Amino acid sequence: MNRSARFRSLIRAPEILQLPCCHDGLSARVLEQAGFEAIGCAGYGLSGSLLGMPDISVLSGHEMVGQYRNVCALVNIPVFVDIDTGFGDVNNVIRVVRECEKAGAAGLFIEDQTYPKRCGHMAGKSVVTVEEYLPKLKAALWARENPDFVITARSDALAVHGIEEALYRARLYAGTGADMVFVEAVHTTEEMKAVNATLAALDTPSMANMIEGGQTPLLGAAELQQLGYSVVAYPCGSVFTAVKALREWAAHLKRHGTSTEFLPHMLSFDAYFEFIGAQAIRDREKTFL
């Protein structure tokens, strides 16, 4: 089974799919080794990891796809990726969808924000009209070569126009053929129920987004499944955790001039050697020597 088909089956499985997001190859390796069946890779983490900047459309499509290619080549599980607003008109959407598919991604989402977009939990968002967004969604659906490649429609309309507009767009995007719909930044469990009831009526899976400190209640996977979600993404946890750990190590090193007492909080040289796959590479080299 190819990774797109595997991802599609996981979305449709009875149990909710937990989809933590990596921000680079190291974090992708950690998540795969932790046992997750699929992972995400999205603009929030990539902007922070590659540029040290927030998710405000400063990262180019070329940079994003390049990192997707690296991650997909590294792990054996499905990788779900982010193409922001499509980086232009329908022709740009077609190109980036095909590039993501060639990179090895199992699926992607495209959102209805205006450009430049921003993180879905930041203030000051705006969205395009459905007349502007729908051609991009249709182009994304048309562009894929593997029919199992999952095209997800994301709407940020709730924060801008309220729940009724968000539900209207969810129905419209599902009716247009989106394989999954992602209504971003819902504020209450009642809104979650309304979104999922709307999509369930159209037999379209729904994705939740759990951002620590964000606008959506931070709920467990089991509760989200009961509310009707098929997938739950965690886009920020890896970068939040990495920055905190690096800050603590850097502060200790600056204060003490050595990391000796910090060793219990770090991997050992040998443990990292094993984690990064160096021993397997060394063993492989022997077959050619």
Automatic annotation (TrEMBL):
It comes from the Bacteria. CDD domains: ICL_PEPM. One of its GO terms (molecular function) is oxo-acid-lyase activity. This is Oxaloacetate decarboxylase. It comes from Rhodovastum atsumiense.
